């Protein structure tokens, strides 16, 4: 009899299914406390075509689980429920407002001989609670960024306002969730900062201050280069979610015309006698269009007493993008946009080329630009700074990683371990393949390194990581 | 209305007996002395100046009308010219004979136009046929000719500061021949020609000595020519043409000052500014030849400020009887009896006053709206520091607040001067270190002028009060501080930590911790121990400050002790231990400190670990795990025994 290795078989005949979204709903138990009114609790349900009674049943089940687990710990009810086929995540976003996300576990379909139905193997252990729990919280943060809290909509117009808001937002947003490519970075929800020398940074400061002085309406400014943050006038938590929106949604949508080099998008504007490449990413696509609409997305950010609503103007010149945030109570006019364009366009163009020049100069000094020797993920909880040499550039659709999902899973597991204790820790794992995975936690910082060294021993791996720390992290207090 | 007179006469003028039929008044530019000669000297000569304190009074015989009278340098010998042929000398050195002696000019048929002392005993006669340099021997009462030069002379001018004598030659008088005197020698410089607006036909003397003056501006000698407007030539108004007269090389036309008017003018130089007095409008204009004007042709200058008159002056009534009720008498300015001398002297012979002209900087602030130009102007003035600082305060506060680009321009200009000074200072220090013998010729310690406004000046006089002012938007405060830091960085000047502290203080006051975090993240606030300590103190209000502070201490690499202290205070004993091991100073630290901290945690395992770690160190260093008495760890040993028993102690290896 021919012996076929299982792996070969897997490659040729097995069918792999990645985790996917089964359902997603928002409910508030206090909206339908009596029997027969259960439907009133449901504020949003995806997929919408599910039959009403099933919706009610599913919501009721979640409610029951949460209630039941509360008896064990009133302050910390269940956050997730593991079943063979799927996993449910519960999140009380606001008082009594619950968001539930149900994810189908990844599975392998193995065909059987003789026309029997294929065997399905659920890989329920492949899904990490921390990752999808974070994804769920991010869904809410993103909703809140563009719509404010649920409570706010309720105050303003009751469920009649809240329900359409939820539908409008989540209908589109859920389509952009790519659950199969969620990983440790979603847990961190970090911000990638653009490395920059002091002088150029100060020039950017100067630019931001001057624009804010000149255009008094501008309340906050954020400055990004190459999709990486340089300056945020917003507070950290607001910037974190805005950054997520910019880098995973807005910028990818606008990068295509630039890459394609279509002259319509890159034709320099002439303002005064200065050429500039500035353009609006939100609001009017073309200022000269007589029918241009001067409507900008609105966002909600925290203030000392609650929240405030702002227009979000995103303006870009070459690789530099600036977000200007203006109180939503102000009507934005064509004149204002023209003034902004004339003021910011030339300055930003100049600044962008300055940064570019400085950046290439620094790169030349630090050595040729080769594939990073180490694959690592770094995250600092204090400033949300995140750095990954594992992830490719994010696009609108997927975030690509250069390592096998198994290794990403190990990283996630180590992260869970770290989250359990306050102490500094270090974990070294020898993975199934030739890989070593090292996790280190020092104070508020976490570092994960993946090494591919055949026959390396523990000591050598440790030395290797020390080398990495010495070269990449020598200017911070990171204990080895 | 705010004060606008930016020129004034000095408060304490030199007073002398005013000119009259019996009293002749002379002024010597070299010694800046006024001579009041009564009745040809017979009834007394009073010499005053350069300040009012020193005056000399004497009598001399009336041997005819005095044409010119001057002391040699140091008041050693008095020279008096009474005829057109000779000059008489009188010794003023004590113990030397006081009898007059005389010297006639050597050239036949020449008449003496005047004379100048070039030293305490050297004198040059200027005649219509040339110049004669003499040495005077007061002890012997004799005079010896050193050198002479013959050429025809219309008139002359002498600049005592540079010892340059300028002779007008040629028929029109516009060919000027300069000579320079140095250590008893006379050297001829290259002659040059003044361009006349109209060439007269037939040729006649057209360049008057009244229209020429010599003065040093920014350390360079210039011949200033007051070129009157002429209807025939293409010049609608008068101008002052400056000819640069270098020590070596050719004299070249270098600057043109546009007067934009016509009439009678007089020139002074004050604080390197050319002051042009206009008699008919009774106003004065000032020009700064170092101010570049982009909208004008090369080296053509417009007045720095609008024309204003000299500040009204009241003559204080002094004298034997002071009448308190009588107010001081206003003095007539721009009077026709005024004589103007270089560089900054105005004399009213009819009233008996000698004033020094002065520039008052505060009024200029309100007359120049362009703060960048104002700074360029102020930075070149002598007593500019407080005015500059007040301008800085002005543009940051109140109604005349400038926009950020203006603030930036002002900072950049200040820091440019500051930087040049620092660089010069550094060069000097380097040169001194490499040995004073080498190229010792040019190495002079750079002079710190008032225009050098350093960080501490800005901090003390401008920024600290600005940041504390109520009602100023904190956004603007931070923007200004960052702009100043940017400007310093741009000039590659190391920023002092107190500026960073000011930034931090302001940010903390307004709860802008995330901004602060970002600044530190990009190392905009440079690392220093004081800053790290300040951050540590912020930890209770902003926990991430702890991490920022530790990072900073780590980067300083000289603060390992501080890091250990911080970690121990946080009871991170293992972390501290790992840290000192990583920096290789494990062998030198005090065991007691660590054991104390470990004991305080009440974590027995931790105490065990730390204790054993130090025992191992002792073993390694001294071959014995026991602690030395000097380490004062007795109580920890007792504690260890209590917890884990005697047998758990590491024993000395028996040989």
From TrEMBL, chain A:
<dbReference type="InterPro" id="IPR013176">
    <property type="entry name" value="Ccz1"/>
</dbReference>
<feature type="domain" description="CCZ1/INTU/HSP4 first Longin">
    <location>
        <begin position="22"/>
        <end position="148"/>
    </location>
</feature>
<dbReference type="Pfam" id="PF19033">
    <property type="entry name" value="Intu_longin_3"/>
</dbReference>
<dbReference type="InterPro" id="IPR043987">
    <property type="entry name" value="CCZ1/INTU/HSP4_longin_1"/>
</dbReference>
<comment type="similarity">
    <text>Belongs to the CCZ1 family.</text>
</comment>
<feature type="domain" description="CCZ1/INTU second Longin">
    <location>
        <begin position="218"/>
        <end position="344"/>
    </location>
</feature>
<protein>
    <submittedName>
        <fullName>CCZ1 homolog, vacuolar protein trafficking and biogenesis associated</fullName>
    </submittedName>
</protein>
<dbReference type="GO" id="GO:0016192">
    <property type="term" value="P:vesicle-mediated transport"/>
</dbReference>
<dbReference type="Pfam" id="PF19032">
    <property type="entry name" value="Intu_longin_2"/>
</dbReference>
<dbReference type="InterPro" id="IPR043988">
    <property type="entry name" value="CCZ1/INTU_longin_2"/>
</dbReference>
<dbReference type="InterPro" id="IPR043989">
    <property type="entry name" value="CCZ1/INTU/HSP4_longin_3"/>
</dbReference>
<dbReference type="Pfam" id="PF19031">
    <property type="entry name" value="Intu_longin_1"/>
</dbReference>
<dbReference type="GO" id="GO:0035658">
    <property type="term" value="C:Mon1-Ccz1 complex"/>
</dbReference>
<feature type="domain" description="CCZ1/INTU/HPS4 third Longin">
    <location>
        <begin position="370"/>
        <end position="468"/>
    </location>
</feature>
From TrEMBL, chain B:
<feature type="domain" description="Mic1">
    <location>
        <begin position="381"/>
        <end position="628"/>
    </location>
</feature>
<dbReference type="GO" id="GO:0031902">
    <property type="term" value="C:late endosome membrane"/>
</dbReference>
<feature type="domain" description="Regulator of MON1-CCZ1 complex N-terminal">
    <location>
        <begin position="25"/>
        <end position="143"/>
    </location>
</feature>
<dbReference type="GO" id="GO:0005765">
    <property type="term" value="C:lysosomal membrane"/>
</dbReference>
<dbReference type="Pfam" id="PF07035">
    <property type="entry name" value="RMC1_C"/>
</dbReference>
<dbReference type="InterPro" id="IPR009755">
    <property type="entry name" value="RMC1_C"/>
</dbReference>
<dbReference type="Pfam" id="PF21029">
    <property type="entry name" value="RMC1_N"/>
</dbReference>
<dbReference type="InterPro" id="IPR040371">
    <property type="entry name" value="RMC1"/>
</dbReference>
<protein>
    <recommendedName>
        <fullName>Mic1 domain-containing protein</fullName>
    </recommendedName>
</protein>
<dbReference type="GO" id="GO:0035658">
    <property type="term" value="C:Mon1-Ccz1 complex"/>
</dbReference>
<dbReference type="GO" id="GO:0010506">
    <property type="term" value="P:regulation of autophagy"/>
</dbReference>
<dbReference type="InterPro" id="IPR049040">
    <property type="entry name" value="RMC1_N"/>
</dbReference>
């Amino acid at each position: 009899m021919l012996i076929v290795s299982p792996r070969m078989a897997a490659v040729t005949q097995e069918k792999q299914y990645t985790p996917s979204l089964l359902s997603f709903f928002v409910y508030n138990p206090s909206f339908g406390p009596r029997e027969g009114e259960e439907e009133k609790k449901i504020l949003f349900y995806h997929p919408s075509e599910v039959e009403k009674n099933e919706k009610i049943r599913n919501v009721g089940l979640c409610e029951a689980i949460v209630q039941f687990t509360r008896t064990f710990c009133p302050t910390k009810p269940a956050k997730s429920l593991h079943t063979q086929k799927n996993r449910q995540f519960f999140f009380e976003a606001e008082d009594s407002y619950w968001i539930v996300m149900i994810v189908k576990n990844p599975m392998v379909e193995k065909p059987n001989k003789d026309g029997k139905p294929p065997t399905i193997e659920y890989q329920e252990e492949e899904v990490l609670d921390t990752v999808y729990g974070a994804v769920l919280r991010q869904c809410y943060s993103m909703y809140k960024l563009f719509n404010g809290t649920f409570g706010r909509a309720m105050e303003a117009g009751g469920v009649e306002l809240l329900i359409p808001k939820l539908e409008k937002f989540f209908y589109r947003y859920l389509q952009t969730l790519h659950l199969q490519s969620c990983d440790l970075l979603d847990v961190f929800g970090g911000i990638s900062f653009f490395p920059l020398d002091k002088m150029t940074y100060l020039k950017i400061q100067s630019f931001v201050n001057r624009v804010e002085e000149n255009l008094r309406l501008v309340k906050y400014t954020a400055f990004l280069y190459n999709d990486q943050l340089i300056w945020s006038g917003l507070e950290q938590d607001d910037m974190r979610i805005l950054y997520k929106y910019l880098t995973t949604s807005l910028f990818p949508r606008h990068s295509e015309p630039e890459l394609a080099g279509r002259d319509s998008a890159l034709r320099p504007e002439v303002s005064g006698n200065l050429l500039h490449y500035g353009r609006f990413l939100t609001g009017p696509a073309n200022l000269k269009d007589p029918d241009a609409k001067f409507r900008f997305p609105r966002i909600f950010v925290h203030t000392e007493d609650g929240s405030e609503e702002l227009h979000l103007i995103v303006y870009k010149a070459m690789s530099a993008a600036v977000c200007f945030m203006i109180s939503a109570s102000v009507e934005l006019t064509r004149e204002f946009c023209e003034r902004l364009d004339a003021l910011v366009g030339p300055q930003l163009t100049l600044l962008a080329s300055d940064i570019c020049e400085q950046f290439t100069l620094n790169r030349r000094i630090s050595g040729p630009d080769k594939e990073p020797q180490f694959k690592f993920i770094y995250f600092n909880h204090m400033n949300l700074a995140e750095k990954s040499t594992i992830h490719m550039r994010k696009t609108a659709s997927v975030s690509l990683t250069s390592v096998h999902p198994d290794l990403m899973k190990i990283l996630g597991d180590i992260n869970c371990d770290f989250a359990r204790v306050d102490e500094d820790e270090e974990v070294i794992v020898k993975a199934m393949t030739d890989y070593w995975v090292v996790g280190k936690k020092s104070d508020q910082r976490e570092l994960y390194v993946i090494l591919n060294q055949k026959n390396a021993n523990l000591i050598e791996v440790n030395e290797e990581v020390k080398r990495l720390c010495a070269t990449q992290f020598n200017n911070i207090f990171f204990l080895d | 209305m705010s004060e606008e007179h930016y020129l004034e006469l000095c408060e304490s003028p030199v007073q002398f007996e005013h000119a009259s039929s019996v009293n002749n008044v002379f002024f010597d530019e070299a010694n800046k002395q006024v001579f009041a000669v009564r009745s040809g000297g017979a009834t007394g000569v009073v010499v005053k100046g350069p300040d009012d304190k020193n005056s000399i009074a004497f009598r001399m015989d009336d041997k005819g009308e005095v044409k010119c009278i001057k002391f040699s340098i140091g008041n050693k010998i008095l020279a008096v010219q009474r005829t057109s042929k000779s000059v008489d000398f009188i010794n003023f050195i004590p113990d030397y004979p006081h009898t007059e002696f005389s010297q006639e000019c050597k050239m036949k048929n020449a008449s003496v136009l005047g004379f100048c002392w070039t030293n305490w005993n050297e004198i040059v006669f200027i005649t219509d046929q040339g110049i004669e340099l003499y040495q005077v021997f007061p002890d012997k009462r004799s005079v010896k000719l050193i050198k002479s030069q013959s050429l025809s002379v219309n008139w002359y001018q002498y600049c005592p500061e540079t010892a340059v004598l300028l002779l007008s030659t040629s028929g029109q008088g516009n060919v000027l021949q300069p000579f320079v005197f140095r250590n008893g020698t006379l050297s001829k410089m290259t002659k040059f020609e003044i361009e006349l607006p109209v060439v007269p036909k037939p040729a006649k003397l057209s360049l008057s000595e009244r229209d020429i003056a010599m003065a040093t501006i920014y350390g360079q000698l210039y011949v200033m020519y007051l070129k009157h407007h002429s209807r025939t030539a293409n010049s609608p108004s008068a101008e002052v043409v400056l000819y640069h007269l270098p020590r070596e090389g050719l004299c070249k036309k270098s600057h043109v000052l546009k007067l934009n008017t016509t009439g009678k003018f007089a020139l002074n130089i004050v604080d390197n500014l050319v002051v042009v007095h206009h008699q008919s409008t009774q106003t004065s204009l000032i020009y700064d030849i170092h101010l570049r004007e982009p909208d004008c042709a090369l080296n053509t200058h417009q007045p720095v400020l609008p024309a204003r008159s000299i500040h009204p002056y009241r003559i204080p009534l002094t004298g034997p009887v002071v009448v308190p009720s009588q107010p001081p008498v206003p003095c007539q300015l721009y009077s026709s009896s005024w004589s103007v001398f270089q560089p900054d002297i105005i004399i009213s012979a009819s009233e008996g006053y000698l004033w020094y002209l002065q520039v008052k900087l505060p009024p200029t602030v309100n007359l120049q709206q362009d703060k960048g130009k104002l700074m360029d102007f102020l930075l070149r003035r002598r007593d500019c520091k407080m005015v500059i600082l007040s301008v800085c305060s002005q543009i940051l506060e109140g109604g005349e607040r400038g926009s950020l680009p203006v603030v930036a321009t002002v900072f950049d200009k200040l820091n440019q001067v500051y930087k040049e000074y620092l660089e010069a200072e550094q060069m000097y220090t380097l040169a001194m270190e490499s040995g004073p013998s080498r190229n010792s010729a040019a190495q002079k310690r750079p002079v710190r002028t008032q225009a050098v406004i350093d960080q501490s000046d800005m901090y003390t006089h401008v920024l600290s009060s600005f940041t504390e002012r109520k009602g100023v938007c904190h956004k603007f405060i931070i923007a200004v501080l960052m702009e100043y830091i940017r400007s310093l960085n741009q000039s590659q000047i190391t920023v002092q930590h107190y500026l960073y502290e000011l930034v931090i203080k302001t940010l903390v006051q307004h709860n802008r911790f995330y901004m602060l975090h970002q600044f530190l993240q990009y190392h905009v606030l440079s690392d220093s121990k004081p800053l790290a300590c300040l951050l540590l103190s912020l930890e209770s209000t902003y926990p991430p400050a702890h991490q920022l502070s530790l990072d900073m201490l780590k980067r300083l690499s000289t603060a390992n002790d501080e890091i250990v202290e911080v970690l121990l205070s946080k009871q991170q004993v293992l972390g501290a231990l790992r840290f000192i091991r990583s920096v290789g100073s494990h062998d030198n630290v005090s065991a007691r400190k660590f054991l104390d901290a470990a004991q305080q945690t009440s974590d027995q395992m931790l105490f065990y670990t730390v204790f054993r770690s130090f025992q191992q160190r002792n073993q390694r260093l001294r071959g014995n795990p026991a602690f030395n008495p000097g380490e004062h760890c007795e109580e920890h040993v007792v504690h260890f025994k209590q917890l884990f028993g005697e047998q758990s102690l590491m024993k000395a290896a028996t040989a």
